[in-house]
Amino acid sequence: MTDILRRKAALRERVSGWKRAGEVVGVVPTMGALHAGHLSLVEAAKAACDRVIVTIFVNPRQFNNASDLENYPRTEEQDAEKLAPFGVDVIYVPDPDQIYPEGFATTVSVAGLTEGLCGAHRPGHFDGVTTVVSKLFLQTGADRAYFGEKDYQQLQVVTRMATDLDIPVEVIGCPTVREADGLALSSRNLLLPPEARAAAPALNRAMRGMADKLMAGAEIATLRPLAKAEIVAAGFDEVEYLELRAAEGLAPLPKAERPARLLAAAWIGGVRLIDNIPVG
Ligand SMILES: Nc1ncnc2c1ncn2[C@@H]1O[C@H](COP(=O)(O)OP(=O)(O)OP(=O)(O)O)[C@@H](O)[C@H]1O
Ligand SMILES: CC(C)(CO)[C@@H](O)C(=O)[O-]
Ligand code: BAL
């Protein structure tokens, strides 16, 4: 089984040996409950790096909802078993005091990119993400970091943060892994009641239909109410947002006039799902 390290000093010692030998270190930050989406990031890291660290930390500061934090799946033993065939070098599962020691008083915050989409509906979420990810970058000393496009806004925000803070890490985005029915894999899918799980692919289906119409010149403002109604009719409780944004920088777009991304968040069976797809 792969070594599990829980203290940053032990991690640092291990990584400094690799760095002395000139090895390229990759990191895959996760909150655990690993699925094939996470494992695709691990595969990408293994293919391009000499050493790979997977981090597992359910970061309380990025949860804006206490019951979401409480219900978040925690499956460390199974996660280690899933990682075993990949030949990962270290699983870093920091004890909470390794991330937030007594007296911790710093927040890393990215402006602009964090203001709409998930940022508008999860107050404080991205500050929690950038605070923990900056710490994970610095603690692991990774040269490359792998993130999923499933969390598209997060990928953009983390890339901006690393650039702005001169953290010498290359942030690499990897495509969203989906179930055969189109549902994006997500740890939160485990929390879906069976009926909700059966209805959940309607979100991606509606988005793909919208993307075709956007490519044919339709405006997002015209398509949005129809698509929302379709998603709710399929069994969703609420569509939180459904927006067309520039693929780089996330500026709102009325039409698919340049490489764009259609992004959505919606509630079903008490679970908040997100998805995004390229348009053009
Ligand atoms: N379906 C997926 N395809 C590719 N990458 C993914 C997928 N799901 C998650 N990831 C990526 O894995 C990393 C860790 O994500 P996380 O542990 O939050 O899992 P998650 O499945 O996104 O869980 P959540 O339910 O919290 O959204 C992130 O970079 C995320 O974008
Ligand atoms: C990047 C991350 C591991 C930070 O806690 C989390 O936001 C996630 O799992 O996507
Ligand atoms: N997948 C991003 C982590 C979160 O939803 O909190």
Automatic annotation (TrEMBL):
EC number: 6.3.2.1
EC supergroup of this enzyme: ligase
Domain of life, source organism: Bacteria
GO biological process, one term: pantothenate biosynthetic process
Pathway: Cofactor biosynthesis; (R)-pantothenate biosynthesis; (R)-pantothenate from (R)-pantoate and beta-alanine: step 1/1
Gene3D superfamilies: HUPs, Pantoate-beta-alanine ligase, C-terminal domain
The keyword Nucleotide-binding is assigned to this record: yes
Keywords noted in UniProt: ATP-binding, Cytoplasm, Ligase, Nucleotide-binding, Pantothenate biosynthesis
Positions contributing to ATP binding: 31-38, 148-151, 177, 185-188
Keyword Nucleotide-binding: yes
Main location group: cytoplasm
Residues bound to beta-alanine: 62
GO cellular component, one term: cytosol
Catalytic reactions of this protein: (R)-pantoate + beta-alanine + ATP = (R)-pantothenate + AMP + diphosphate + H(+)
Residue numbers annotated as active site: 38
Intracellular or extracellular location(s): Cytoplasm
Listed GO MF terms: ATP binding; pantoate-beta-alanine ligase activity
Family membership: Belongs to the pantothenate synthetase family.
Subunit description: Homodimer.
NCBIfam families: cyt_tran_rel (TIGR00125), panC (TIGR00018)
Its job: Catalyzes the condensation of pantoate with beta-alanine in an ATP-dependent reaction via a pantoyl-adenylate intermediate.
Misc note: The reaction proceeds by a bi uni uni bi ping pong mechanism.
PANTHER family: CYTIDYLATE KINASE/PANTOATE-BETA-ALANINE LIGASE (PTHR21299), PANTOATE--BETA-ALANINE LIGASE (PTHR21299:SF1)
HAMAP family xrefs: PanC
Name assigned to this protein: Pantothenate synthetase
Species of provenance: Salipiger abyssi
Gene designation per UniProt: panC
